[in-house]
Each structure stands twice: as C-alpha cells, then as structure tokens.
Design goal:
two-stranded antiparallel sheet; 4% strand; two-stranded antiparallel ribbon; mainly alpha; 6 strands; 63% helix
Length: 650
C-alpha cells in the first residue's frame, strides 16, 4: 500500500537474490497510476471524437473549419458564415503571420504560394493565375484587401502535413524579419544569419562525424577513468587549495597597496553596487577569503579518508560497468521510450488546443469587409477557453510519466548494481540487468509510481508559478515578485533533494524489497548517518564527473576546429572571420556534452548505488566469519586501514 500497512522496524537481513520474502510494493499506488493512464487515454479519445485528430491531420482555419471537407455546424447558435464553411478542395492551411503561428489568423487555401509575392499587383496576378483566393472566404481571386488578406510580402511556401510552410531558402526572408527572430543585429546582421545558416547546412555531415568522435572520446575516457581517477581527483583538490591560497595572497597584497596609498580610493562592491573605501573593502575580502581557505584546507585534511573512499568507489564502479556493460544501453532505451511518450503527449496537446468552440467573428469580419470596423490585423480569435483542469491534468501527465520513465531507469540500474554487489562470486552472474528489469516489473512498479508522483507534486506548482511569472512581474508589489521567486527557488531545491532521496530509496528497495516510504525513511536516515561521506562522494564525485564531461566536450571542439576548417592561421584575427562557424561549434558542443552526460550519468548512478550498498554492508556486517562483508577486497582494505588508524568510517 502507499506508505501504509508496513513497518520499517523489521531489520532481518536477507540476501538480495532470495526470492522468497520479496513481494509487490505500493500496489495501490500502481493501481492509481494505471487509472491515471486510463484517464489520459480517455482524454485523447475525447479529443479524437471531437475531430481533434482530423484537425491535426488535415489542418483547420481560425474559425474551426477542417480543411478539405464540408463542415457542419455543431451548434444552432452560430451567426458566422465562416464557421460552417465548405472547404472541399481547399487542402492547405495558410498562416497570415509565420513568425507567430500560434496567434496568426489562418485560412484554408487550394494551393500554397510557390513564390514570394512582394507587391499588391503580384498578389492579384498570382491569385488570378491559380484561380483561387488566399484571403478570407468572402474575398474572390484577383482582389487584395489589406484587412482580409495576408500582409505583404507573402512568403514562398511548400506543402508539409497539409500546412503551407515557408521555404527553407532563408534568403527569401526580409532582413527586418530575420532581425526580429535573432534580435542580435548589433553582432549578426541579416546577411550574416543567411550566410551562417547556409554554412551550417553544408556542415551537417561534419557535425554527424563529430558526434561519432564525441562518442568515441567518451568511451575511451570511461575506460581510462580507472587509471586517471586518482590523478584527476588529486588535481582537483590541489587546484582548489592552490587557487584559494593564491586568491587570498592577492587580496592581502591589494589591501596592502590601498593601505599605503596617500589618498582615499573608492571601491564599488560587486552585485550590490555600493560605494565603500577600497582599503576597508579589500580588508573584508581578505579576511573572508582567509577564513574560507583555512576551512577548505581543514576539510580536505579531515576528509582525506573519505576522499580515498571516493577513489575506491570509482574503481568499484569501473569494475561493475565492466561486468555489466549493458548498463550503458539504458540511456538509449530510456530516451527511446521517453521520445515515444513525448510524441504522443504533443499530439494530444495539439488536439486539446483545438478542442474548443471557436468564437463568433461574423459581425467583425462583415464590418471589416464593408469598410468599417477594426482592421483584420487587430482582430483576435475569441475562443471559449478549454477547461483548465484538462491542461493541468495533461501537464501533470507529462511530469509524472516522464519521471516514472526516469525512475524505472534508476530502479533497473540500482537493482543491477545491488545484485552485483551482494553476489560474492561475480562470475556466477548471468545478465543481472535482465533480472533487475524482471524484479521491477513484477514487484516494484508501484514504488516507482509513488516516487515519481512526489516529484510531480513538487514540480507542477513550480511550473505554474513560472507560467504566471509575467503576470506576477506586472504586479506593483515587490513583495509578491520576491515571494514568487523565493517559492520557485525553494521548490527547485526541494525537488533536487527529493530526487536524491528517491534514488537512494530505490536502492534500498532493491536490497530489502520493502515499500517506498519505508525505504525512503531508511535512505534519509542513511544520508544523515553518513552525511560527511555522502557530501564528499557527491560533491567531489559530481565535480569529477562534470570535469570528465567538459574534457570530452573540449576535446571534440578542438577536433571540430580542424574538421570545419576554422581559419586559425590567419594573422588578422577578427570576429567577422569566425562568426559563421559559431552555430556549428555550438551545436557540436551541445551534442558532445549530451553524449558524455548520458554515459557519465550512468557512472554517477552506479557510484551512488555502490555507496548505499557499502553503507548497508558495514552497518549489517562486521567482517567476522559469521557476518562477513560482501564488499570487494579493495574496499575491505580501506576498512582495515581505517580501523588500524582509529578512524570512524561511518
């Protein structure tokens, strides 16, 4: 059951491979999750029955008419002739404003404009040649009414999914339109954007090659981590201490310089923009830097054994991944499942957006066509708002199901690591990842559903506050603005903490087979009892893995400079010579970082799972013949060294 009906006081230890005693956990939560999925399916079915799928497939105009069919009224209250338009033969949707398609007026047309129409005469001649109008349905071909027709110029388009999509030839766009899109005309002019886009298109094969190079570099670095881990961690520690010492010396020298000055020099405090005397400011900076430097050095000295534990855990993670290489396939499986769900979610969201009655524009359009009333550019499509409950339900589905997918990945990885750790004869393991998947499906889907629901309940109000940020900023009260920002920040921090507890709880579930809440409680106590160890492993370990991602990204970018033929040998280096390579380099950097992130995230999760197993092992066992450790010989050596030096490993 969901946090009920099971006590966490039973401390009887059972091997992880023992099948008896393991039972389904949080069954009610899984049942609620299944009902939620059924509700999402019913929501999709409701939009399909309301012709939502036809609107998605064939397109629809601003009045709710589906293109290429005879539309019938759904209500006798309609006073607009446009809402029940016969659009037979009008197969394509033409947007009046391609820069803002969501807010643009749109109509169904017979053919998409196959060339750019710059002037009114070109527009009239073109509509006469195709014998069809590109305006509202009461405007015939050969006529251009600025209030009822698209604003000139009408861009060249090609049919795509029954929509008229602007041609990929970006040179057809006006410079002013490009400037609206990039909004950085002081650095990139419209001509620069056109040339950079064409250059990027030619560089796509090279970008694909560089993605493969990033993958190869990641695999090589993962293989070498066993040998480089100690060097890199020690280098991080040395650079951190050396950097703080150098900064402290520099600040004291600056203070000495200002103290010997014959005149009073003012200094602006960063961020706060507050003017103070330079001598006093640098005295404060020097004292603060000295305190932090001393604390850092003391922390490094007192946590040296825990730093050695991190090195042992990295080595253990390398062994685990060597014995279970299929773990590296988990990000690909997760990405595939997540992509399929997001595709379904987006289709349903588009159908929900069109699942509404369109407002009456009959009187306004008729007034405009007769020469009175507001111009069409100022006409807004009045739609009866969809019930907000539908959108909240759909957004909750996005968060909950996405987190459920990631939670399943975490549970599978934790289960495989737990199986590997608590098996003394590693050679007897037979694809532990498959047994972990089986345990997840048979026993623990309810626990993952509950853990992901808790994350969703924290993230949903944060998304709502972010969505309402513009309205909050429009408020005259500074207190309201600051409270909203504080709430968003606190919810983000709470979400990060809950994710950390969740993963540890999943590991405890894999070890003991208990419910989520009991395991989360034990995971929380485990974090408290091993706070210093967890802090060192997670902070220093995360930074170590982040540095590994940066190494892969930087290495790929260096290779990209030569593959993309960036002109480094030019003596007259100017920004104009390099800015056309910036889009490709940015894309290569993002792709290489994501590839490295997908691999090293698995590495990080394996280290965290081994740490939990290690803490549970030394808590339940003492290394005697009756209660021997499950840990490897290297970790046993660490325990023995800690015991001989009277250091508390807990």
């Amino acid at each position: 059951m969901c946090c009920f009906g099971e006590s966490g006081n039973n401390e009887e230890k059972k091997p992880i491979h023992a099948k008896k005693g393991r039972r389904c956990t949080d069954c009610i939560c899984f049942l609620i999750f299944v009902l939620f999925l059924i509700g999402l399916g019913c929501l999709t079915l409701l939009t399909v029955l309301d012709d939502g799928f036809d609107r998605l497939l064939y397109g629809y105009d601003s009045f709710g008419n589906i293109c290429d069919r005879k539309n019938v009224p759904k209500s006798s209250k309609s006073s607009s002739n446009f809402r029940t338009q016969d659009t037979t033969g009008l197969k394509y949707v033409l947007y009046f404003n391609y820069l803002k398609p969501a807010d643009s007026l749109k109509v169904c047309v017979r053919t998409c404009p196959n060339k750019t129409l710059h002037t009114q005469q070109e527009f009239i001649s073109y509509t006469q040649s195709i014998n069809s109008s590109l305006c509202y349905y009461n405007v015939t071909q050969g006529v251009y009414n600025p209030s009822l027709c698209p604003k000139l110029p009408v861009l060249q388009t090609t049919p795509m999914l029954n929509r008229c999509v602007p041609t990929p030839n970006i040179t057809e766009l006006l410079p002013s339109q490009i400037d609206k899109i990039v909004n950085i005309s002081s650095i990139f002019t419209s001509d620069d954007v056109r040339l950079a886009t064409l250059t990027l298109y030619k560089q796509l094969p090279d970008i694909g090659l560089l993605a493969l190079i990033a993958l190869a570099l990641t695999i090589v670095l993962v293989t070498l981590l066993r040998y480089l881990a100690k060097l890199m961690v020690l280098l991080i520690i040395f650079l951190s201490c050396f950097g703080m010492i150098a900064l402290t010396i520099y600040l004291w020298l600056q203070f000495s310089t200002y103290a010997k000055a014959n005149q009073v020099i003012q200094h602006t405090v960063p961020i706060f923009n507050y003017q103070v005397e330079a001598k006093s400011a640098f005295l404060a900076y020097s004292i603060i830097s000295t305190i932090f430097t001393v604390i850092l050095i003391l922390l490094m000295f007192t946590t040296r054994k825990r730093i050695f534990l991190l090195l042992r855990l990295i080595a253990e993670a390398q062994k685990a991944l060597g014995d279970m290489p299929m773990l590296f396939a988990m990000p690909l499986v997760t990405f595939t499942v997540l992509l399929a769900f997001l595709f379904y979610w987006m289709l349903t969201a588009i159908m929900i957006y069109s699942f509404q009655q369109f407002g009456d524009l009959g009187e306004t359009i008729n007034a405009v066509s007769e020469g009175v009333g507001a111009p069409a550019a100022n006409v807004t499509i009045a739609k009866q708002g969809v019930n907000w409950a539908l959108w909240i339900y759909h957004v909750l589905a996005l968060i909950w199901i996405s987190e459920f997918i990631f939670g399943c990945q975490s549970m599978v990885i934790a289960g495989a690591v737990v199986k590997w750790y608590f098996t003394r004869d590693k050679k007897s393991l037979h694809v532990p990842i498959l047994s972990s998947i089986r345990r997840l499906i048979v026993y623990h889907l309810g626990s993952v559903a509950l853990g992901s629901f808790i994350i969703a309940m924290v993230r949903l109000p944060r998304y709502i506050l972010i969505y309402l940020q513009d309205k909050i900023n429009a408020s005259q009260s500074d207190i309201v603005k600051k409270c909203a920002k504080v709430c968003i920040c606190c919810l983000w921090l709470l979400e990060r903490f809950l994710k950390f507890v969740n993963y540890n709880a999943y590991t405890i579930i894999c070890i003991e087979g208990k419910s989520f809440c009991v395991s989360a409680q034990k995971a929380f106590m485990l974090i408290i009892e091993n706070s210093m160890r967890v802090a060192v492993v997670n902070s220093l370990g995360d930074f170590f893995l982040f540095l590994s991602k940066i190494i892969v990204t930087a290495g790929t970018l260096v290779i990209a400079v030569f593959i993309l033929d960036v002109p480094l040998d030019n003596a007259n280096h100017t920004f104009d010579q390099y800015k056309f390579f910036i889009p490709a380099l940015v894309i290569v950097g993002i792709i290489s970082f994501l590839i490295a992130h997908s691999f090293f995230t698995i590495y990080e999760m394996v280290i965290d799972a081994i740490l939990v197993c290690f803490c549970e092992d030394i808590k339940a066992n003492d290394g005697s013949e009756d209660r021997p450790y499950y840990m490897s010989s290297s970790l046993k050596k660490f325990i023995d060294e800690s015991s001989t030096t009277n250091i508390n490993v807990n």
